[in-house]
Write a structure and sequence with these properties.
By secondary structure, this protein is α/β, with parallel strands linked by helices. The protein folds into 3 domains: 76 residues, no CATH class; 340 residues, 3-Layer(aba) Sandwich (Rossmann fold), CATH 3.40.50; 325 residues, Glycogen Phosphorylase B (Rossmann fold). 48% of the residues lie in helices and 15% in strands. Strands 1, 4, 7, 8, 11, 12, 13, 14, 18 and 19 form a 10-stranded mixed β-sheet that branches. A 6-stranded parallel β-sheet has the order 22-21-20-23-24-25, with helices on both faces. A hairpin with a 5-residue loop joins strand 9 and strand 10. The longest helix has 30 residues. The structure holds ligand 26V.
Length: 811
């Protein structure tokens, strides 16, 4: 289908609307057209999907499996059209048929199978793996409910279930014949065989069927189509088998079936505090066991050599510790099913598994109660015990200097299984996701492990797919770029650097600026439609969009807004450049403080937006239900990208990269990948403020910070906190005393007050800089020019050559 003309496209869409939806084109709805176009692009992708699989089989090339509890893919129709080389003609055909392409694409549910950074990274990685012609696939869970839908009602967050599969999902193919059985619980029997070796038999396990649903992942115009395999939990006993049974058994059966289906029931929200919930542990084992079984099946079908060669053909990257049961499960399969001895099985396992760490927040580290692991996964528990014993013995014997560290190194300690320790011990590579983050892992969080295994630790700074996050979401900017430097940047994002030649070219800067205004106008319409708030496209669009968490410091942002508001109330004539403060953030349902911050932002929005004394100089907008599709609307319209986490806390950040690539300037701390952005663009093209990671860590280790001192010495801060305590922004039901007490009585653990002054000063510099549009646009284009480094193509290239040892498929 590649070279259909627009007229042929029109015919094909008409025909598909009839054949798949049974409607004539003049009766068709946006939904009908969405399904018709999806069917057309599926046909195109399916051909390449089959061919890609055949080539992998024939060449027996090494493959990477990316195991992740989350894949935040968002909508797929437009990106599939783009990568299949069909987008432009399709758009034209749709318009000629009288349909608005954007509205057609918006018919698709936004697949929210992830919480935020970690899940979206997994989706970007799959796109880059396919675009770079690597053999690599995702393995995840087909949750029936994705991350909750957020509504803001009277300023409060309310969560609704995200039942995204209500209608047919055109991208998935159910592969019932490739189902596998997963076993939980049961009794383990040990036999001694004649040769002295041990054999394990399991009885009375609870059996769950894992059914794969495959989603094609198309590379950019290269005919490669890889797979994302999402597992769904089903009960294997059919309803009809139960017809003959007694009534009580029938209800028992239904109950059992329901509890099995719960395993792929919903995605857990990323909480402020890690909690060991048994259903989550079931989900993790379900993902790991199903994926490994299917990897083995594939290996046996194609390679047909002893499994001792597994590490030459397969590498498994685990996305955080969530799939770290892959270590004992791989050991179990190799020993109990494939009859390897411990040593060989351990050799294979530790050559196959690689682990990525995504956070150093200690409260987020996964630990499972020993008893829970023991009763849910008795055989895995035995294996973890053995891994732990051998490991601790080795440390004791070979590393006398680390003997006293054994309690912090042991995989099983104080009644808990420490998953990060299991992942490090059981893998050949441990990577952080930005330079600073990896350094902190080595020097602090995982210091003793680094002493033991220095060769395992490495950095892979995150990236984002520039095809979705620039080419697709900002077509106007993309074509301006292509006009001046040619289209090669689409395959080689580093070539964006050629834009530097145009960073002082006023006609070019004017065009880039006009595109930004155009995107802001579009977003302004959207905001008006959703919230009724009118915002000025000539105001500075100052944006913070990310999960709500104390360390990300949305509170610091809103304190600045309150400060500006106070200043304007004191002096209504104050000459400031108009600003629009935009927020998007979901709080975990049980995270009380985060929800208070959402309330405060919404409260300030309604006060400020409706205060005639402000004369529209500032507007505050909280857009509900921040997700991938909303990000796609906001990012191209952003002027200021707020990346203001407490230094050392944000492992990398990826929103910072997306906004930079769309010409926004970063206002940020020296944290995560902000540091690498700064190193590239230089101090004059970024607004950096606040404590450094070393300073923050020094305060944590040695004390010396007293939040109350700042309250007493900085009257701007005191005024804001007192306003919160005294109900200046409250109404009868709403008040913000918690924020006041939390900040002052817990000594402001994220240094909001400590960085306040530096933040205000940085904002003043932003404001002055914006007044000089020529300089601003020069800064903006400089940022775009250097953003190529943050393409996930670069990241995947590094994973592939340094960790996975994969070669690209030939063209
Ligand atoms: C933890 C939990 C615990 C409760 C159950 C659900 C759940 C889901 C996820 C997590 C861990 C989240 C860690 C994470 O998302 N880290 C982010 O990873 C990004 C990609 O590397 C990085 O850019 C962000 O800085 C980092 O916060």
């Amino acid at each position: 289908m590649p070279h259909l003309t627009i007229d042929e496209w029109i015919k094909a869409i008409e025909h598909k609307a009839e054949s798949v939806r049974g409607v004539a084109i003049n009766e068709a709805t946006d939904k009908d057209i969405y399904y018709a176009v999806s069917a057309l692009v599926t046909e195109e992708m399916n051909k390449n999907w089959l061919q890609t699989q055949e080539r992998y089989k024939e060449k027996q090339c090494k493959q990477v499996y990316y195991l992740s509890m989350e894949f935040l893919v968002g909508r797929l129709l437009e990106s599939n059209l783009l990568n299949s080389g069909l987008l432009n003609e399709c758009n034209e055909a749709l318009k000629k048929l009288g349909f608005n392409p954007e509205r057609v694409y918006a018919q698709e549910p936004d697949a929210g199978l992830g919480n935020g950074g970690l899940g979206r990274l997994a989706a970007c990685f799959l796109e880059s793996i396919a675009s770079l012609r690597y053999a690599g696939h995702g393995c995840g869970i087909r949750y029936r409910y994705g991350l909750f839908e957020q509504r803001i009602i009277h300023g409060h967050q309310v969560e609704l279930p995200d039942y995204w599969l209500k209608e047919e999902y055109p991208w998935e193919t159910r592969k019932a014949e490739e189902s596998v059985d997963i076993h939980f619980g049961g009794d383990i029997h040990m036999f001694k065989k004649n040769d002295g070796s041990l054999e394990f038999k399991y009885e009375n396990t609870d059996k769950v069927t894992a059914v794969p649903y495959d989603v094609p992942i198309a590379g950019y115009q290269n005919k490669v189509v890889n797979s994302l395999r999402l597992w769904s939990a089903e009960s294997n006993a059919s309803d009809s088998e139960m017809l003959t049974s007694q009534c009580s058994q029938y209800y028992h059966h239904l109950d059992h079936k329901h509890s099995i289906e719960q395993i792929s029931g919903f995605l857990y929200p990323d909480d402020s505090m890690y909690e060991g919930k048994v259903l989550r542990l079931k989900q993790q084992y379900f993902l790991v066991s199903a994926s490994l079984k299917s990897i083995f099946r594939q290996y046996k079908k194609t390679v047909r050599r002893s499994l001792i060669h597994l590490p030459d053909k397969i590498v498994i990257q685990i996305n955080d510790t969530h799939p770290s049961l892959a270590v004992p499960e791989l050991m179990r399969i190799l020993m109990d099913e494939e009859r390897f001895g411990w040593e060989d099985a351990w050799q294979i396992t530790t050559k196959v598994i690689a682990y990525t760490n995504h956070t150093t927040l200690s409260e987020a580290l996964e630990k499972w109660p020993e008893d829970m692991v023991k009763s849910l996964l008795p055989r895995l528990y035995m294996i973890i015990q053995e891994i732990n014993e051998r490991f601790c013995k080795k440390v004791w014997n070979d590393h006398p200097l680390l003997r006293e560290k054994i309690p912090e190194l042991a995989i099983i300690a104080d009644g808990q299984v420490h998953m990060a320790r299991l992942a490090i011990v059981g893998s050949f590579s441990v990577n952080g996701v930005a330079r600073l983050h990896t350094d902190i892992l080595k020097k602090k969080e995982m210091k003793s492990f680094y002493t033991l295994f220095p060769e395992r630790f490495n950095n892979k700074t995150n990236g984002i797919t520039h095809r979705r996050w620039l080419l697709q979401v900002n077509p106007e900017l993309s074509s301006l770029i292509t006009d001046v430097i040619g289209p090669q940047w689409i395959q080689r994002p580093n070539q964006l650097i050629s834009l530097l030649r145009y960073s002082k070219d006023s006609p070019f800067l004017d065009k880039v600026s006009a595109v930004k205004v155009h995107n802001k106008v579009k977003l302004a319409h959207f905001i008006h439609e959703k919230t009724g708030i009118m915002v000025d496209e000539h105001s500075i669009f100052d944006v913070q969009i990310k999960r709500l968490h104390e360390y990300k410091r949305q509170l610091l942002n809103i304190f600045h807004v309150i400060h500006l508001y106070n200043e304007l109330k004191d002096n209504p004539k104050l000459d400031i450049t108009p600003r629009t403060f935009l927020f998007g953030a979901k709080a975990a349902p049980s995270y009380h403080f985060a929800k208070e911050v959402i309330k405060l932002i919404n409260r300030m929005a309604s006060l400020i937006n409706n205060d005639p004394a402000i004369h529209d100089k500032i507007k505050v907008v909280f857009l509900e239900n921040y997700n991938v599709s909303l990000a796609e609307k906001i990012i191209p319209a952003t002027d200021i990208s707020e990346q203001i986490s407490t230094a050392s806390k944000e492992a990398s950040g990826t929103g910072n990269m997306k906004m930079m690539m769309n010409g926004a300037l970063t206002l940020g701390t020296l944290d995560g990948a902000n540091i690498e952005i700064k190193d590239l663009v230089g101090d004059k093209n970024i607004f950096i403020f606040g404590l450094t990671a070393d300073e923050v860590l020094h305060y944590y280790n040695h004390g010396g910070y007293v939040a109350r001192d700042i309250y007493h010495t900085d009257e701007r801060v005191r005024r804001i906190l007192d306003q919160l305590k005294d109900g200046a922004f409250g109404s009868q039901e709403i008040e913000f005393k918690d924020i006041y007490y939390h900040t002052l009585y817990h000594n402001d653990p994220y240094f909001v007050l400590r960085d306040f002054d530096a933040y205000i000063e940085a904002h003043e510099l932003v404001e002055q800089s914006y007044r000089d549009q020529a300089t601003w646009m020069n800064m903006s284009v400089t940022n775009i020019a250097y953003s190529g480094k943050f393409s996930s193509d670069r990241t995947i290239q590094e994973y592939a050559s340094e960790i996975w040892k994969l070669k690209r498929m030939e063209k």
